[in-house]
Amino acid sequence: MKCSKLIYVNIGLACCFLFTIVSFANDDIVPIPTKVKTNKDLVEVGKKLFFDTRLSANDELSCASCHNVVDGWGAEPSAVSTGIRQQLGKRNSPTIFNSVLNFKQFWDGRADNLSHQASFPVTDQVEMGMSSWDEVIVKLKGDNYYTAAFKQLGFDGVNKKAVVEAIAEYEKTLLTPNSPFDQFLNGDVGALNQQQIDGYRLFKSYGCISCHQGVNVGGNMFQKFGVLEDISLHNGSLSEDLGRYNVTENEWDKRVFKVPSLRLAAVTPPYFHDGSVKTLQDAVEIMIEFQLGRGVPDEDRDAIISFLGSLVGEKPQGVK
Amino acid sequence: MKNLLIFLICLLFFTLGGVYVYLEYKALPNIEAKANELNADLLRIENANTRLNELLLRSRANMDTNYDMLVRASAEIESLLDNLEEGYLTEGADESSVFSNRLKTLRAAFINKLDSVEKFKTNNSVLRNSERYAPEIGQELTSLADSSGQPDVSKLYSNAVFDLQNFSRQASNIEPTKLKQMAVQLRQTTGLMPEYLEIEIAQFATHVETVASVKPKTDRYLSVALNSALDKTDSVASSWVPMGSQSQAHTNFNLLCVFYLIALTLFFLITTALVFRRIHKLNQHNRNQSGETLAANLKVSDLQESSSRNEELALLGERVRQNQPELSSFINQIRTGLESLDSGLSDLLKVHGNAVYISSHAQSKSPDKATISALLREQIRLVRSTNTDSTETIKVLQDTQRNAREASDLISKVIMEPASSE
Predict the structure, then answer these.
(1) DSSP SS3 for A222
(2) A44 in helix, strand or coil?
(3) Which of A67, A143, B75, B175 is the most buried (most CB within 10 A)?
(4) Catalytic residue flag (residue A127)
(5) Strand, helix or coil at B364?
């Protein structure tokens, strides 16, 4: 009799376990793919370009200068990046990892894809400071490697299209799969601790999931900064940048930004478009207050932060 | 030989020309295939549009809370539109054509749609959050109002939650203004409720207000998105005509074919004319050759005949020479005989002539006897003077006749022998 009760209890527990797995597996966040289809030869050229300082006017800055993928997580650890001639940018450099999963690029979404994005910083007078792409091409044509490699890849020699496509191809490989949360989604319930599981539940119940969802836990929509509370009420600079309005000049787009990915949020401070918020705790509190229109107890906030920590995956090998 | 060479060169030229025309034909843009391709592209856009609409409705119904599929569908439509423009609005295309305008209209409609999709996503996320949180905090505040001895406030909170949930339903008849007024009333309850609930009450009011303002926007953007670009693909498909370079390529090819056919026809006409002319000349030449051959044959025949006659004559001469002694003998004998006859017969002829004269004179009406007598005497004298024995004369004559016959036989033999010998 005792034995049969034990069996029923075990069956019940197994059902709960399966229900937990199934309910999470069908959730709004899906695991990052372990790799995306790329042209390996083009990736190699793109990698060289990503670290090539000749893309800047003074031959001192490369893409990797603001997106440190070797020692960091591909984001700028300071509030804003320092560009050419020590000029400071206006926005925080987001992580380059998993950026291929974003539906638009830049905080204001002015680039439709990675190759489009790669064309901007080079000629930005605050970032890399080249006067034109022609100037860039002249410099790169002096390198026989690029000339030969691009011809071999079927491009018409070294040109803007080839350069940005190569950089984009390399950036496609910068994925961080196999995070604890992805493992959890893939059925490994033990990959998350209880606080992280609670954090995920709170992440959904608080409504964070309304915007931060999908494979990249964000990066697939625009949202106004300060939906339920006016962000200008917050002390600081967060309300100064008009965001997407600068691109569309549409009143509706004032202070609208691309919803950032939270995949590496735990390891890429500071936060928000101007990098003015230094800690994740503050960022979560601001988000819940201004975006969700509610308060958050410290316990819930910490659980959510713990959950965000479980989103950090493995850095790919051979990034340089 | 020269004409054959020219003919072969021309034939080679036209063969190469034919190959060139074939290659040009193969390189021609296939207008029918292009039209089918366009229809296929438009169908892909329609399918992507249908999928996008379905995903929008699923998102609005909170069946999908993940916008990744929406993003993919939007990106697919953008990509298809880019491909459509790149594929059909080629360089040289008439930008003012109906097709170009309709394609631009289609793109503008989809840009409007995708813009509405983005706005829908933004508003829907906010609405989704407030629709979930407002009842949650409202019910909590209702309980707290009850426990605080505020039944009216509790009823207000309860009604607010009820109206909000009612409003959130599709086809609700509650006006947004009613909810907004309710939000104002909710804020006014802060003085009636414990002070520590002030923030929660404000949050409740804010979320009710948010639902009231965001839901119409969400539905409006959803409606715009769902109704944008309807039937635009049909108008694009119906207005397509081969444009610019495609049409020009076909015109050029038609001209090329016309020129090639004209040249080919001329070539065959000229060749045929030359062949007929050649045949005519050959016939004429044959006729001339026949005449010449005939003349030559005649000449040869004449020559052969002449040669044969000469040979015969030579043979005859030879025979004559061989029989000359015998013939000479006969001839001499004949000549001798004839000489004898001549002397003998001359006297006889005189006698005969005189006799005829005497006879004619004697038979006249008045014959002269003297004359007759004289004639008779003359006749007698003649007869007497004729020393030729007539028998001998006859004999000579017979010998001569025989010799002549033998000579004749000999001549006949000489003449006939070569013929018989041949």
Answers:
(1) strand
(2) helix
(3) A67
(4) yes
(5) coil
Q: How many Å apart are CA B22 and CA B379, to the nearest integer? A: 128
- Best residue of B121, B201, B206, B214 to probe chain A, by most A CBs closer than 10 Å: B121
First to last CA, chain B: 52
A223, β-bridge pairs = A257
Which phi and psi angles does A258 have, rounded to 5°?
-70, 135
Q: Angle at which helices B198-227 and B176-188 pack, to 10 degrees?
A: 170
Q: Give the pLDDT confidence of B58-100 residue by residue, as tens digits.
A: 999 888 888 999 999 999 999 999 888 887 776 566 667 788 8
Residue type, B126: V
Judged by CB atoms within 8 Å, which residues 213-242 of A form the interface with B?
A: 213-215, 220-224, 227-229
Q: Which of A44, A60, A76, A127 is catalytic?
A: A127
Q: What is the ipTM of this complex?
A: 0.88
What lies within 8 Å, CB to CB, of A48 at 6+ separation is A145, A146
Query: What gap in Å lies between CA B325 and CA B317, rounded to an integer?
Result: 13
Beta bridge partners of A82: A88
Residues 6 or more apart in contact with residue B127 via CB below 8 angstroms: B210, B211, B214, B215, B218
| Cβ neighbour number for residue B6 with a 10 Å cutoff | 12
Contacts for A151-155: CB closer than 8 Å, 24+ residues apart: A152/A41, A153/A39, A153/A41, A153/A42, A153/A45
Backbone angles phi, psi at B299, to 5 degrees: -60, -45
Tell me phi and psi for residue A39, to 5 degrees: -95, 110
Quick one: closest CA in A to B128, which residue?
A: A210
Contact B122 A213 (CB under 8 A): no
Which neighbouring-strand residues pair with A111? Answer: A105
Give the closest residue to B138 by CA, choosing from B108, B166, B117, B159.
B159
Residue A106 main-chain phi, psi, to 5 deg = 75, 160
Point out which residues pair with A243 in neighbouring strands.
A256
CB atoms within 10 A of CB A35: 11
CA distance A271 to A255: 16
Strands A222-224 and A256-258: antiparallel
Structure tokens at B373: 């007598």
Stated pTM of the model:
0.71
* DSSP code at position B153: H
User: Measured between CA atoms, how close is A103 to chain B, in angstroms?
Assistant: 7
| Tens-place pLDDT, residues B314-371 | 887 887 788 778 878 878 888 887 787 777 777 777 778 888 888 887 777 777 778 8
